[in-house]
Design a protein that fits this description.
two-stranded antiparallel sheet, Fumarate Reductase Iron-sulfur Protein, Chain B, domain 2, Ubiquitin-like (UB roll), 7 strands, 5-stranded mixed β-sheet, alpha+beta, 10% strand
Length: 324
């Protein structure tokens, strides 16, 4: 089949080198992956094309890149699944990381953030004579997150990292959950305090991009949500993110509706006058565009039944935790 490959190239070793797009027209078999196509280009068309690859079996994660705007593993992505009806495939380096050359990115910022969450067991108490033993059931919840191959696809497409490089990112926080959830680890309180800070679990906007592009089904966003829950349970409730979550739950449980006017002061603090005054321009613009929510909310019909349902769910969750 005929394929046109467009590669976004850049050589950071060249002073003032700017990105440019280079195209290649090739005739390849139907079973080719994007990585097969790149290798063919480098071996037969242009030996200067730079990219990383190793295992070619979706294990090493080194061939992570953007294909038609979304990150993934080139070795796992078949051409027929990403090429347009005109036979076009666009390939770019992974996002949110410095480009070294063409499709090769510098992974140092990625590994720095993984290292910052302290990705090692921190046990407490007397050491066993042989080894730390844990039941298979206790580790069952961690099997998914331990499948992470650190390819960086989730980091590439993280919308928060595009605007705030301080965010730890989905890969690091998913790895953080792996140790918080490990029954052998004894530093949960300290870990959760670390992840509760600026750039931690509350900065995720739940855009689902990391869930969609993860080649191993780790679902980093879901792990971040579980870390948020554990953070609240650990008593870290005096941050904007924590207060917003608790206020959201309290308001909906009270009337069945979300009272957005009360949500703002409950999140930033009723006595945080400078912060509330600073938000007045936003409120004025919202009013001008007729987007101010109603000042008073009537409880939904049957709100008592709704409250009983909420209480039932909470009781069930409490029982499950006690059994665990």
């Amino acid at each position: 089949m005929q394929v046109t490959l467009e590669v976004k190239r850049v050589n950071s070793e060249v002073e003032n080198g700017s990105p440019y797009t280079q195209g290649y027209d090739l005739d390849v078999p139907d079973h080719f992956t994007v990585l097969d196509l790149l290798i063919k280009v480098r071996e037969e068309e242009d030996e200067t094309l730079g990219f990383r690859c190793s295992c070619r079996a979706s294990i090493c994660g080194s061939c992570a890149m953007r294909m038609n705007g979304h990150a993934g593993l080139a070795c796992k992505t078949k051409l027929v699944n990403v090429m347009t009806s005109e036979g076009l495939v666009k390939v770019e380096p992974a996002g949110n990381l410095p480009v070294v050359k063409d499709l090769v990115v510098d992974m140092k910022p990625f590994w720095d953030k993984v290292h910052s969450i302290q990705p090692w067991l921190q046990t407490k108490g007397p050491q066993p004579e042989a080894e730390y033993l844990v039941s298979a059931d206790a580790m069952q919840d961690l099997t998914g997150v331990m499948g992470c191959i650190m390819c960086g696809a989730c980091v590439s497409d993280c919308t928060v990292l595009e605007v705030d490089k301080n965010f730890l990112g989905p890969a690091a926080l998913a790895k953080a959950y792996r140790f918080v959830g490990d029954p052998r680890d004894g530093a949960d309180q300290e870990r959760l305090g670390l992840y509760n800070q600026y750039g931690g679990v509350w900065d995720c906007t739940r855009c689902f991009e990391c869930v969609q592009v993860c080649p191993k089904g780790v679902a980093p966003m879901e792990r971040i949500m579980e870390l948020r829950e554990k953070t609240l349970e650990a008593g870290y409730q005096n941050t904007y993110g924590a207060r917003h979550t608790l206020a959201f739950e309290k308001l909906v449980e009270h009337s069945g509706w979300l009272d957005e006017l009360r949500l703002v002061p409950m999140t930033v603090g009723f006595f945080n006058i400078p912060k509330l005054i600073g938000m007045l321009p936003v409120a004025i613009r919202a009013g001008y565009n007729r987007k101010v929510p109603p000042m008073f909310h009537k409880a939904i019909p049957g709100v008592k039944n709704f409250r009983r349902m909420v209480k039932k769910v909470k009781d069930m969750q409490k029982e499950e935790k006690e059994e665990a």
